[in-house]
Amino acid sequence: MQRRRGRRLARWILGGVAAFLVLAVLGVAVWSQVGVMAAEPGPLAEVRANPAITVTDAPEGIVLAPADGASDVGLVFIPGAKVDPWAYAAILQDTAAAGTTVVITRPWLNLAFFDLRGLDSFTSAAPAVSSWAVGGHSLGGVRACQLTADADALVLFGSYCATDLSADDLPTLSLSGSEDGLSTPEKIADARHLLPEDAELVELDGAAHASFGDYGPQAGDGTPTLTDAEMHAEVSSFLAPFLTP
User: Fold this and answer.
1) How many helices (H) and strands (E) does the chain have?
2) Which residue has the higher pLDDT, 33 or 145?
3) Tens digits of per-residue pLDDT, 194-231?
4) For 177-186, what is the mean pLDDT?
5) Does residue 168 contact residue 196 with C-beta atoms inside 8 Å?
6) Burial 25-52 (b: 16+ CB within 10 A, else e)
7) How far apart are CA 77 and CA 127, in angstroms?
8) Contact at 8 Å (CB) between 75 and 95?
9) I need a surface site. Which of 16, 179, 222, 235 has the fewest CB within 10 A?
10) If you compute the radius of gyration of the chain from its CA atoms, what whole number of angstroms results?
11) If DSSP states are collapsed to H, E and C, what string results for 83-114?
12) How far apart, in whole angstroms, are the C-alpha atoms of residue 226 and residue 234?
């Protein structure tokens, strides 16, 4: 009798644990689909109408390429948590027009943290490109730092590394905002020691966290004083020459 009771108790416990795990997974899956910040239609329409680039909705991601097809350099860009990947097309279009093929990924469950794919899962979208940088916004930047072993450069938008890259000689560009209420200037400074010693850090005066994409205001963020057009121009002025010097 005691053995039977023990087995029943063990089955009950295992069943409870299994049910909890299933509910937890389902809960995360549902949460990841709720409140996704959509790309603003105006900037996206400008991207689609831009004659200087081609826009391809490929299996690997959204590909922005120079219209003349001449591109030896690429950037794999990882979106922030629960942000529509299309929201980054406008701010990256000038960099594509300047000669860089950009692949904006679609993270699993809209969260880069859960996306375990390697860099080659995205670079396959442009096999002719010989040199690849990896970058991202917010949580996407944290994930980008984990993929640098296969990259030639690192780009961060309102983000910082949780991976120690201080011993690397990887060319690194970190763009942050003075009004960022999420990846605050203090957080950027506190994580500086994890970046390569010669990393280039630029704080854009008047930029907030959501300024790095076109998806509207974000909870907890600061108030930007830069217009979208000014922000796009600022980012392009640093990013394009960094990738194609």
Assistant:
1) 7, 8
2) 145
3) 999 999 999 999 999 999 999 999 999 999 999 999 99
4) 98
5) yes
6) eeeeeeebeeeebebbeebbeebeebee
7) 16
8) yes
9) 16
10) 21
11) ECHHHHHHHHHHHHHCCEEEEECCCHHHCHHH
12) 10
- Measured CA to CA in angstroms, residue 55 lies from 71, 97, 195, 201 at distances of 14, 11, 32, 30
Contact 64, 55 (CB under 8 A): yes
Q: Which residue has the tokens 């630029």?
A: 202
| pTM of the predicted structure, to 2 decimals | 0.88
Closest C-alpha among 46, 69, 41, 90 to residue 235: 90
- Sequential DSSP letters for 11-44: HHHHHHHHHHHHHHHHHHHHHHHTT-BPPPHHHH
Mean of pLDDT values over 43-71: 96
Nearest in space to 212 (alpha carbons), one of 106, 92, 130: 92
* Number of neighbouring beta carbons within 10 Å of residue 198: 9
Half-sphere exposure of 204 (CA within 13 A, CB side): 32
Give how far Cα 178 sits from Cα of 85, 161, 193, 205, Å: 24, 18, 19, 5
CA 31 to chain CA centroid, Å, is 19
Cα angle: 135, vertex 136, 139; to 5 degrees: 135
What is the percent of the chain where pLDDT is above 70? 86
